[in-house]
Description:
- By secondary structure, the chain is α+β, with helices and mostly antiparallel strands.
- It contains four helices and seven strands, in the order βαββαβαβββα.
- It has helices spanning 15-28, 63-71, 103-118, 147-177; strands at 2-4, 38-44, 55-60, 96-98, 123-127, 130-134, 142-144.
- The strands form two sheets. Strands 2-3-1-4 form a four-stranded antiparallel beta sheet. Strands 5-6-7 form a three-stranded antiparallel beta sheet, covered by helices on one side.
Amino acid sequence: MKVIGIPDNNSSECASETTALCLKLFEKSGVKITQFDIDIAHRVPDRSSRPGPRSIICKLVRRVVREEVLKARKNISKVSAADIALEDQNLLAEAQIFQYLTPTVQKLFAEAKKFLRENDLKFCGVKNFKVYLRESEGTRPVLIKNLSDLENFYNRRDTIATSHREQLMCLFIKHYYNV
């Protein structure tokens, strides 16, 4: 998991302190978790040079716990800093939890989201380090493994649209000319 927006009060925070912080945060978000569910948690500098606290990378031992944390991640904004023993008394409004992605998957996901916006698609997501696109609510997700898959998705979509137009034209001609 990747947790961003948690105040970094101690620049020399050790892994056990970060693990304890994650435990409190996840518990206050509504997840039943123990210290044995966390393999390691530590702070890392961001790849971008944006100001703010360092991100937390938290490796969970069990997939079931990871899924529970992802389901409860919207509750993180309701947790106050005091709830997790931080000095700042504000809600963690800027805090967010994401599935941690490798740099390669993160770039592919960014390109897929860009593709989504440019082509008026509805859904783009990541599950188990795999990027998926869906055209609309009722369609099946399409696995995107690389950039050429995005191009193939676009071509497939264009082919489907063309064949649909041809079918409609045939129906119109048959109806209009009573063929």
